[in-house]
Amino acid sequence: MNTCSPSCAEDATFAKCADRLRQRIDAALDECTNLEDGCPSQLREAMRYSLLAPGKRLRPMLVLLAAEACGAAVESALPAASAVEMVHAYSLIHDDLPAMDDDDLRRGRPTCHKKFGEATAILAGDALLALAFEVLAEGIQPPEVAARCCAALARAAGACQLVGGQADDMIGAAEEAEPEETGIEVLESIHRRKTGALIGVSLRLGAMVAGADEAREKALAEYGRRLGLAFQITDDLLDVNGDEAAVGKRLGKDSQQGKLTFPGLLGVDRSRRRAERLVQQARDALAPLAPRTVALEALASYVLERNR
User: Fold this and answer.
1) pLDDT confidence of 247, banded at 50, 70, 90?
2) Is the pTM of this model over 0.70?
């Protein structure tokens, strides 16, 4: 049974489609974190506080929409969608710590370490990362597909992708690059890993669950590469001129910390045009999956609209 219809191309209808998907994702996440008695209550509370915090659920939504675009029912991809969101939540908990980005606000609420303390926050992130692979391994059938999904998610979350991108961002690798073109190249490399890795693997997981052929997987991979970079550029733009209450986190911190960003390198207008071009390229990449792509196309446009 399909969750979204071709009318998702209309903004209002896509918003309703996204709301329905979020409800199903939130229900699955809630069920996954009803843990056994062996889990300490404060640890469970910290995990659920961060995982179930109100959010757009972009990454798990991509899993479900990719599976649907490849002909599968969204229900079959819910374990993979849940696993991706757990990895994302773990990464945010750890990124917010004083030793990392030192943030005290996330999604309009105190960050996990501000509410529960640093030790519990670290453990909550660790537990969510482990739970992600448990849910993926047990929830995806057949077992050989589950194994492929686990390997793909592990690579995306590991030292050469998400964690590696965060490490380069922390040590200021982009700041040392000159001239401008080299700086952009390094900055894009960081964010293809730090932001783009989970976006890309979300689409790949949906395709694997659906048993997609190589052409469809490649199309979704290209869509994800373009979308992930556009997402990061709009995130940088929001840090410059967004509404803090609407965004739900402290803004302006990148410039305060001296981090190199797309607006810092290119300026606001050129950054916005770059994001617009990337979103159009992402939409174009979906041609091999037509006509099941309207929801993914609308989601790409939504990423761009975050800054307007």
Assistant:
1) low
2) yes
Domains of the chain: 10-305 (1.10.600.10)
Task: Indicate the DSSP class of residue 110.
Answer: E
- For 113-122, write each residue's pLDDT tens digit: 999 999 999 9
Contacts of 279 (CB under 8 A, 6+ apart): 226, 227, 230, 300, 301, 303, 304
Exposed, middle or buried by CB within 10 Å (0-12, 13-18, 19+), for 240? middle
Sign of the Cα torsion 71, 74, 79, 80 reads positive
pLDDT at 249 over 60: no
> Which amino acid would we find at residue 3?
T
Strands 105-106 and 109-110: what pairing?
antiparallel
Query: Is the four-CA dihedral 246, 33, 200, 98 of positive or negative sign?
Result: positive
| Pair of tokens at residue 176 | 């040392």
* Residue 147, number of CB atoms within 10 A of its CB: 13
DSSP code string of 144-208:
HHHHHHHHHHHHHHSTTTHHHHHHHHHHTTGGG--SHHHHHHHHHHHHHHHTHHHHHHHHHHHHH
Distances in Å between the alpha carbon of 113 and those of 98, 242, 272? Answer: 9, 25, 33
Residue 19: per-residue pLDDT: 92
